[in-house]
Every structure is written in structure tokens, then in C-alpha cells.
Amino acid sequence: MKVLEGIKVLDFGRFIAGPYCAALLADYGADVIRIDRVEGGEDRYIVPVTEGGEGAMFLQLNRNKRSMTLDLDSPEGRAIVRKLVADADVVIANMPPRTLRSLELDYESLCRIKPDIILVASTAFGTSEAVCDRVGFDGVGQALSGAVHIAGQPEQPQKAMVPVVDFATSFACALGTMLALYERQRSGKGQEVSASLLCTGLNMASGALIEEALLGLDRQATGNRSPSYGPSDIFKAKDGWLITQVIGRPMFKRWTQLVGRPELLDDPRFADDTLRGEHSGVLSACMNQWCGELTQSEALALLEKARIPAAPINSPRQTLEDETVRAAGVIQWMDYPGAPRKVPIFATPVSLSRTPPRILKRAPLNGEHTDEILAGLGLDSQAIDALRQRKIV
User: Fold this and answer.
1) What average pLDDT does the segment 148-173 reach?
2) What is the pLDDT of residue 97?
3) How far is CA 263 from CA 95, 135, 254, 270, 316, in A?
4) What is the distance between the alpha carbons of residues 127 and 124, in angstroms, rounded to a whole number?
5) Residues whose CB is less than 8 angstroms from the CB of residue 105 and which lie 6 or more positions away in sequence, other chains included
6) Average pLDDT of 336-363?
7) 257 — phi, psi (to 5°)?
8) In the chain, which ranges are continuous DSSP H helix?
């Protein structure tokens, strides 16, 4: 039996934080219905990769779901939502509170329909009245946290080009959903699960923020070089780039022996991680010299033998072809209508030994399961056709 078998989830989420939370629940067996706009949600078509215009991220974030279209602004659409909520366990909607209230998807409205419902509602800035209705994306969470300031170079801040804050917020929402479901077994009551991009970003940057609060160092950007230990940087070999991170004296000792600089171990400039971070430019220069005499594969093999964490700097194409990635078995190739070739869908990041997650279905086409879902609510084909003619679905 799957962990979440029998749990029904309505996914009103958009972009990443909501939809990926729902996908994680679906991987563990929840029946997830994605509620799409009649014309398709805007997140469906970002970075299009199929003939129908489905976006790259959409295919990853909406696997294992069913899709129905619905006009949420119409009285008939609202009535269908109420029927769906009455049979649901979880509603996911990453929207500002004002929007939730206008769609009657706020917790109070949902409770009037299903008293033990769980609402998972992430926002950009949290639930404080002063900020709750402001909008924001992943980059905003990164920027406010201080992370963008300490990345890149002093003259050019740099955000991560992958949406790390969005995805981390999804994980937090999935954890919160599981906690609420677990607590409901004892109390019989639902509750609202909230998370924010801001709070997630602050947690991810907490080390730098706590250091600043206590020591007031006013850290500036150092590119890829760590200011807290070293050598930790990106280095150029003869034929490519690689990353190495050396933390702690035992690893530093192995590194000094590897690069033929054993005298650095007793150099007072490098006595501990903090000092190695302060003088990391010197260490990076030594490492660059060592790497520059080797091919990427030669350097990585020697680093692996010395038990020093390292990896090639892959392009997206190289990642898909990487032997380590392939050996890990974390890509599932799936067919999708209109895609020029099979789509790589990436495994659920956490697994369980007895009841593992499974990716069984590709992301749905827009409204692909509308008739099936409405029939499950008791509507016959004539009633469904009437809704379609009026563009309610």
C-alpha cells in the first residue's frame, strides 16, 4: 500500500512552490487533481518544449496528477469546487490571502464545506498583515535573504539561476502537509499549513546572517571562493572546470599532500578553517596551478582518491550524459504528447525502503481528465457537455 493512498488533494498551485508540493504527495500515492484554467494556467507554458507549448518545468512538477479545467470566477465553477472540496483532504494554493478569499479558497471558506480540510498556502513574504498580499518569485526570496549579495562579485551580485528557494519552500510545504495529516488522525481536525519564500530564503542564508549579527563582518562577495574555509572554489583544468571543497584540518592535510605543498599545513595563515577562509585567495591560487597541469578527469580521479569532495562543472547537456548521474538511477524517461523525444523526469528526492515513491504518469494535458473527474462527482455526459459549451470547463 502506498503511504498516501486514499488521500485526495486539490492542486490550485501555480509555478513551483504549490505544484511541486502536490507532485511530492502524488509520488507517494495521493490522488492529486490539478485545477487548470480553461485556457491553461500561465505556468504551463513557461519555457515551452512540446508542440502544445507545455513548459520544461511544468513536465517535472505535474507528474502523477490528473487535470481538469474550471472557470473559478463563474457560479457554476464555484459550485463544482465546493463538491470537490467536500471529498478532499488537502487543498494546495500558493496565492496571497486576498486572492484566496476572492476565490473562496481561504481556510474559513473551506472549513464551512469540509471541517477537517487541510489548506496548504505558501506566500512570498508570510502571513503578517503588512506583507501577506505582496507578490514575489524565487529571485525575490534569494535577494532579500542576503544570498545574492554574497554571491558573484562585489560589482555584480549574482542569484542562483535555478529556483532554489521555490523548491525548498515546496519541501517545507510537503513536510507541513504530512504533519497536518498525522495530527488530524489524533484530533480529527484540519488546519492551515503556511510557508513563505522569505522565511525559506532566510533559513538557507542563516549561517551568514547569524555570523553578521554576532560578529559584524559585513561580508562581501568572493565569487565562487568560500570566505569561511578553503580551498573551496571553482578551478580550471586543461580541458574543463571543476569544484572542490576542503573543510576541516584532516581534509586540508590530505589536500596539502595531494598538491605537493605539505608545508602549508603548519603555516599559521592556514591554522584553522576561519584563517583558511581569510587567506583563501592564496589557497585557490595553489589549487589553480595544480589543476592547470591536469585534465579534468585526471584531477577528479586524484581528488576522489584523496577523499576530497569534487565534481565537474557540467553543462545541462553534460549532466544528462554524466556517468555519476546515470549510475545513480535518478532519471526516468517518459513519453509526452508533442515532445520531440522522451522527457527526463527526475526522481523524488527522498525515498522510503518499504513504501517508495513512484512516478507512474506523465504530466497531464490541459483538462485531460475533466470528464472523468466530473463524472466522479455525479454529472452525466449531457451536463458535462453543457458546461463545456458555456466554457465553464
Assistant:
1) 96
2) 94
3) 58, 54, 12, 10, 39
4) 9
5) 12, 81, 91, 93, 95, 119
6) 98
7) -70, -40
8) 17-27, 56-61, 75-86, 97-102, 107-113, 138-145, 164-187, 197-204, 206-215, 249-258, 273-278, 280-292, 296-305, 316-321, 323-328, 370-376, 381-389
- What is the dihedral sign for C-alpha 221, 151, 198, 134? positive
CA dist 260 to 229, 255, 265, 351, 380, Å?
19, 8, 11, 42, 78
Q: Dihedral (C-alpha) 252, 253, 256, 259: value to the nearest 10 degrees?
A: -90
Quick one: average pLDDT of 275-301?
97
- What's the mean pLDDT in 261-280? 97
Mean pLDDT of the chain, nearest integer: 97
**Helix, strand, coil percentages for the chain (3-state, nearest 5):** 45, 15, 45
pLDDT score of 1: 86
Check residue 66 and report its DSSP letter: E
Q: Are strands 90-92 and 241-245 parallel, antiparallel or unpaired?
A: unpaired
Q: What are phi and psi of 121, to 5 degrees?
A: -130, 95
Give me the percent of the chain exceeding a pLDDT of 90.
99
Cα–Cα distance, 24 to 20 (Å, whole number): 6
The cell for 368 is 485531460
Mean pLDDT of 6-26: 98
Q: What are phi and psi of 63, to 5 degrees?
A: -65, 155
What is the C-alpha separation between 120 and 190, in angstroms, rounded? Answer: 11
* pLDDT at 215 > cutoff 90: yes
Structure-block grid coordinates of residue 251: 581534509
**Residues contacting residue 110 through CB under 8 Å, at least 6 positions apart:** 85, 91, 117, 119
Mean pLDDT of 277-295: 97
Report whether pLDDT(293) > 90. yes
CA 205 to chain centre: 16
- CA 164 from chain centre, in angstroms, equals 6
198 close to 229: Cβ distance less than 8 angstroms: no
Sequential DSSP letters for 108-149: HHHHHH-TT-EEEEEESS-S-TTTTT----HHHHHHHHTTTT
